[in-house]
Amino acid sequence: MSVERVLVEKNVEIPMRDGIILRADLYRPEDADQPGKAVPGIVTRTPYDKEQSGAGVVAVMPNALKLAERGYAVVVCDCRGRYASEGDFKPFHQEGPDGYDTLEWVAAQDWCDGNTAIYGPSYVGATTMLAARERPPSLRCAIPIISADDYYDGWTYQGGAFQLGFIGLWGSGLAATGYLQRDHSRPPDAAAEMTAAIMGNGFQLLGSRPLNTMPGISQEGVAPYWHEWLEHETRDEYWESVRHSADYSRFQVPMLHIGGWFDIFGIGTVRNFRGIRESGNPAQHLIMGPWAHTNYDRWLGEMEFGPTGAAAAANVIADINVFLDRHLKGADRDLPSVRWFLMGANEWRTDESWPPPEAVQRTLYLGSNGGGSMTWGDGRLTDKCPEDDQRWDEYSCSGYKPVLSNGGSTLHVGVAQPGPRDQSKAENRDDVLCYTTDVLTEPIDAAGPVEVDIWFSSDRPDTDITAKLVDVHPDGTPVSLVDGIMRARFREGFDQEVLLTPGEVAQLTVDLASLGHRFDVGHRIRLEVSSSNYPRFMPNPHDGESVNASTEMLTAVNRIRRGGDHPSALRFYQLPD
């Protein structure tokens, strides 16, 4: 169905259950309010201004006007406390009830046939997920794009470490644009400091210590949520109440999950797809491309993905149209369960599950003769676990001279770029350990989640362990693929803090997200291990106290154990030849 005339209505008022009014723009076929002409309703709820969000702000987000031309009524709504909508903005915690109320209001309008969907990227993906978990009666399907499964682990924190670069800059941007709300009660004297903070040096902003003194955002009345994020350093009820993975059975509609291998929320996108399917709702679809949160082209960092690597050439919007038509209009066409991009081979593949059914988990063990430090050391990755662990790899680490973030699944606008980047500088540091395979004589296709088990000891009560999977090209260039972190105090769960006993060996697992990549002939696989990744993560002060309240940094001496009773290892899924 294609319509010739679309009506756009501005600032339509939508009442919430507590009397707050949200405002939205409505795009619909002109005659949809006539008898027998009603159409399905599609909602997207944004904190980023409905005046811009309806256009499709990323290449994997549909355009509201185009959806209306295809016979849908599209409602683009400002979230509570943002731009034209009333109320106070409390990220995440308001979006479930408000999303439910918005969808049911849409379903009751004379231009809607009673069937609704919801979609959106990033935080708009959060509003999508949080509304879907409330199970609105009218909801028929949902499309969460580049979004997370957990607003503690995978959004505000990861592996227990505060995502400083992302949260500091994103949070400051939210706080600053809060002054653009139609009616607000934010202190006027803080506006100038807020603007100066986000327009200035990003590294200077992120260098504020303690974090609750960060310029602009930390001023009283500007952004109460900033202080809440810092105070709730564990996964307590504040975070648990909005964690999707706490009960995936609450998601009962078909969903199309869209993400990227270098997207900051790629780890959560895959978790949502797998978790909802495993909870008994098989009508889930997943698309994973070679993209970062802000990049959907065929080139990113050190890699080029071919003509179909760009989102615009990968039929993502077409897949979204197929999905919506099936679940809102009863069309016969359907999507494969999983469509994913194999980097290195630069080809799209389809499968029934993730990881693919034929993928087999492979384990590569860390080994060395005690000289795993830096590129030219003797660290190695082997299929056989070393027999003993007599000589550990030791390094000193300090938050005053952290390993700088370079690429990866980052979102540090104005500070650093995401994606596959040359890690040569990092690997020349003596606090970065490198474990490498022999040169490959056959290609290895990695397809699935990647994890690293690390056995270690520290002379401090707390430390971080970071891990990064790297493709070493034939010319020696080490190109990063996926990375992660685990704060030692959370090795037994994010809801509890168990400090280290200095000198005693402990074990933890670092989740490096999922990957679809070919390590080609002549390449080598490398694992980097260290204890910082700044400014992506807030450095650990190593004193066992509150990391977010710290002002001083101690030096830690960490020892990575491998072999024998301490089988540190890289684990990933490999496709058969």
Which tags fit this structure?
single chain, 577 residues, seven-stranded antiparallel sheet, ten-stranded mixed sheet, Rossmann fold
The CATH topology of the largest domain comes to: Rossmann fold
Name of the CATH homologous superfamily of the largest domain = Alpha/Beta hydrolase fold, catalytic domain
**Strand-pairing-aware structural class:** alpha+beta
Outline type: globular
Distance between the termini: 45 Å
Percent in strands:
25-35%
Helix content: 10-25%
Number of strands: 25
Compute the number of helices.
Answer: 12
How is this structure best described in words?
A 10-stranded mixed β-sheet has the order 1-2-4-3-5-6-9-10-13-14, with helices on both faces. Strands 15, 16, 17, 19, 22, 24 and 25 form a 7-stranded antiparallel β-sheet that branches. With 577 residues, the chain is α+β, with helices and mostly antiparallel strands. Helix 3 crosses helix 4 and helix 5 packs across helix 6 (191-199). The protein has helices at 50-53, 64-69, 95-107, 123-132, 164-177, 191-199, 202-206, 224-231, 237-240, 266-278, 316-329, 424-427; strands spanning 6-15, 21-29, 39-46, 73-78, 112-121, 139-145, 157-158, 161-162, 255-262, 284-292, 299-300, 303-304, 338-342, 347-351, 360-367, 380-382, 393-398, 433-436, 444-458, 464-472, 478-487, 506-519, 524-530, 555-561, 569-574.
